[in-house]
Specification:
The protein contains four helices and nine strands, in the order H-H-E-E-H-E-E-E-E-E-E-H-E. By secondary structure, the chain is of the alpha+beta class. It has a single domain, classed as Lipocalin (Beta Barrel), CATH 2.40.128.270. The longest helix is centred in the first third of the chain and has 11 residues.
Amino acid sequence: MSFYLIFISIVFLPVMPIISLEDNLIGRWKMESVFEGIKDVTEAHNPANNRWIEFKDDKTFVSDGDPYGRNTGTWHIDEETSILHIDSDIEDDDSEWDIQFEQEKVIWTGRGNAWKENFKLIHRREEPR
């Protein structure tokens, strides 16, 4: 009897669509926190609490806020490794990040060298899906 209940449960469970990392990232994200190791350095990197980034479906991005100002460029995600590649229009500002989604947040962990890997950025989706 329990076999049949399990079988029926599996067959009739609603199928949740699998959303790609790229599709999940598209939208506008507000910077919430910045950590260097375990130290919260948000005040230095987002002093006016107005930094944001928007990922567009044409693989471009726009970001803005104090103290760094506006930035534009292109982006892509390696779906297998969850690595976000940012190609900034600003010279020497390209970056790579390991990304992880947690509900309406995305956590970025730097990649490339020990200094970058020590940084973690937390963004919250501005308009929940």
